[in-house]
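tl;dr need the bound structure. longer version: we got a ligand (zinc ion) that a collaborator sent over and nobodys looked at where it sits. i said id run it. heres the input, straight from their email, havent touched it
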Amino acid sequence: MKTADLILINAVILTMDEEFHTYEPGAIAISGNSIAAIGLEADVLKDFSAPMNINCNQKVLMPGLINAHTHVPMTLLRGLADDLRLDVWLMGYMMPVEREFVSPDFVELGTRLACAEMIRSGITCFADMYYFEEHVARAAESSGVRAICGQTVLKFPSPDARSYEDSLEMARDFIKKWKGHDLIVPAVSPHAPYTCTPEILRATAALAVEYDVPLHTHLAETAFEVENMRNENGMPVIPFMKKQNLFDAKVIAAHCVHIDEGEMRTLLHSGAGVAHNPSSNMKLASGAAPVKRLIELGVKVGIGTDGPASNNDLDMFEEMRLAAFLSKLSSGDPTSLPARTTLLMGTRMGAEALHIGDITGSLQVGKRADMVILDLTPVHNSPKFQRDPSNVYAQIIYSAKASDVTDVMVNGRWLMQDKKLTTLKEDDLLFASQDYARKIDLFLIHREQSVLSKLIAIGGATEEESFEVQAKVAIPSVDVIIEAIKSNKEISITRLRHYHQFDAYMQFDDPSQGYVRYREDHFVAVSGEITNVRNRLTLIGQTREHPFKEDVLLSRSRYLAPAVQSLRFYKEYFKPQRTIEIEKDRKRYLVNYKDTEFFINIDHFNVPKLGSFLEVKSRTWSEQDAEKKAQLAEDLLKSLGASLKDAVSKDYFEMVEASIKSS
Ligand SMILES: [Zn+2]
């Protein structure tokens, strides 16, 4: 007779091992952090005794669930911004708030809050990716939950690193410190192909290989990502990553929604694991990953909740159920992802996808004691059919809920007993997290007060302090003015540029907010070809303009930012009350007139059909100087034969508005 520390008896045991053994009534003997014996109760009790036997009262005892992809500290951002597109959500809300609030304290609190939720939903292991991952690891360790912790590496400055070199060093130190830990597996996390450079991808892959740790990343999440990758590199995402040696490492690839058969085979042959995130993919409308085909081919696919800001919970029961439903719906095949396969993805195959299948994911002798006990007697699970022993899998996937989990053990230690958490104080966590919510609310309320602060929040805006003298007149013909510029002896042309201009003016009900102009310049070469495209965003602030020298305007403060996102992004982010779109052809002369530099713009409006305009502009740094230039501007207009009685003392969008009203 051998001795164990603890024996659980009278359980319905689902082992999730290779043969899907089940034992009823089953027993499991635990010694230290591992499983010493498992089988029918009579067989286990024949060989083992323990100081304590616990009667499971015919509840289900199964492996703990593996959350294969998440960002646990984001529990503190749960419900902050929803029903947005991925880019607006990420660049407009998550990243600005993260830059302001994410700290070691934030990360530890968020992780402990997440661990409380995950333990309650039967999760015994999660694969994370975030900033200050050291503190995710500490909080997971103190909560007793097994974790693969990936330190994020990005090409942008992040809350925990000023540069990618810094974050790579952090990742190296973190891996060295935690490698070999009993609960925590350190990892490196290049965020995604589009947020990393090829150099970063290669460096992170080399680091993962050097220390033999997993590399956790996001791959092929959206069709947009794949389209950009094809345009920029002439290949889809997986071959590009292979070219950067990524698959030399033990890869955990989150999403893989938009991949083809060849890419699936690359994942298979490289031994990469895939983390499927049905809630996140549905909520952000990313698409349905080809899970059925991946599993047919033999790729290890786990299920993840993704971060609680894009899900918004950490409930693996819900996630498994949705994985099955989404696969059936997207393949048009109700036999796709049957219940037992889905539970396998949530347990043993999930652990294999995370490259820790040797220690967890199924209940087998020698593996760690990571397991949960489920009460399948509540009404939503009833009744129970005995005819087919595999009914229990369907009961778990389609009927059971996280609230049916009564007990959770990780590494031989109870984290929840009879629905009471043993390592975490939920009341304290709720109080502290509410405090963060209050601060973040204030930050966003303040930011949303002005268009300017919203512009600054997404980064890159600079104030341009200069004044501008500007006069504009309607002209009957473009050619006459061009001839006049060329033949005028007092005008010397420094340069001529030709472009098609697309402008969108975003206006707000409160005129003191000014307006935001999104401008796309298409440079047109002499040959007529478009040689370059430039996008800019300008906040034309609270207007300080006044009619100056009759029809010459003195303009106002402006903020400029490169428009790195699409017009669609800015419309959804700034939420203007109106947007007016203009398309025109512009010839822009830079000239010298009486020792003063002027721009002469000759515009022909295509949309709306407003005709042609001549505009002269000069920049100045003082109002006194502006007076002199205003006089010159008037002279210049006259010398080009333009009639000042056709002057337009309004900006384009006001003219457009007038034309819309009059038509
Ligand atoms: Zn993610």
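gonna send this back to them w/ a short note. The two ends are 97 Å apart (CA to CA).
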